[in-house]
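Async update (no meeting this week)

Hi team, since we skipped the sync, here's where things stand on the single-chain job. The sequence we agreed to prioritize is pasted below, unchanged from the tracker. I ran it this morning and attached the output directly underneath so nobody has to dig for it. Comments welcome in thread, and please keep replies under the output.
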Amino acid sequence: MALTSGRGRPAPGGSATISDVAGAAGVSRQTVSNVLNAPHRVRPGTRERVERVIAELGYHPNRVARSLRASSPGMVGYRIQPVATESVAGIHDRFLHALSEAGEAGDHHVLLFTAPDIQGESERCAHLWRTGAVSGVVLYDLAPHDPRPAQLAAAGVPFAAFGRTASRADRYSWVDVDNAAGTAAAVEHLVGAGHRRIGFLGWPEGSSVGDARARGWLAAMDSHGLLAASHRLDVRGPDTVSSGTRLMTELLDRPEPPTAVVAATDTLGVGAFQAVRDHGLRPGRDVALVGFDDTPAADAIGLSSLRQPIEAVGGLVMAGLFHCIASGGVAVSSRLLEPELIVRVSSAAG
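Output:
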């Protein structure tokens, strides 16, 4: 990835990118592209200014890469995620499948690669783009202050994301699931069944998804005036089955345990399910449980859960990427989809 020093100026040892040229000339990347490929579309004064900056920075378009992208079916880069231990989640696999299907429908295929961390991912994406191996890339699981969108934009790499950052999300294309609406719907379901002490099993603070799911629980509880009745029933831990069992055991051992619990994931929910049984209680009859992600494990044990519209997410992310590629990085779109509550015996037993 090209390193820059100041607006639009490549750092010593770095190679100028189209974003460097655009920044130094005070124009968009699309305008730079037009100067290179369709100069008749650009006003003479602007064209001359851009051409002068191109010469000053020594910018050289990767014509070999452009030729490869134009003459063959496109490839979309995607970093394959490490396998999580003690997890029942299958969201990543479902998303990858949906992404692949949507890509093939648009004559693109997914090129999987690995990277040690998100910095390595950004560097790998920029390399794949510069060499013409991919037409664009897809990002997964963005953190609130994730640096990847800004890094890829600076490198001129077309991309779209599943998830969004806490700020500047209006500068790139993304699709996300309304996680707060999901946990709020779970609370509404449980309140409708007569529960008043409703606990929450969540992740430690700092995750976009985890924090949003916690906010949904908190807002719904507050709207019903139930926060006082559920004092200290919000507990957090790693997203593992054993953590879910430990956290639920902690809640059940309190003098006034919850009568219902919303878990931030099915992984935590499966652990909670086991803890309820270990206490000689019956999920759904003695303690109601709702998870999140609607995994095969949730279906197998009868755990109510929030189902993410992953197939729709995959299709929309790929569509956003296609628009980004076609517009030279100018097109920006955003979509927020709501999950669906799937009620099973863990929260609906009579």
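Quick observations from my side:
Residues 1-8, 67-72 have pLDDT under 50 and may be disordered.
DSSP finds 14 helices and twelve strands in the chain.
Reply here if anything looks off.
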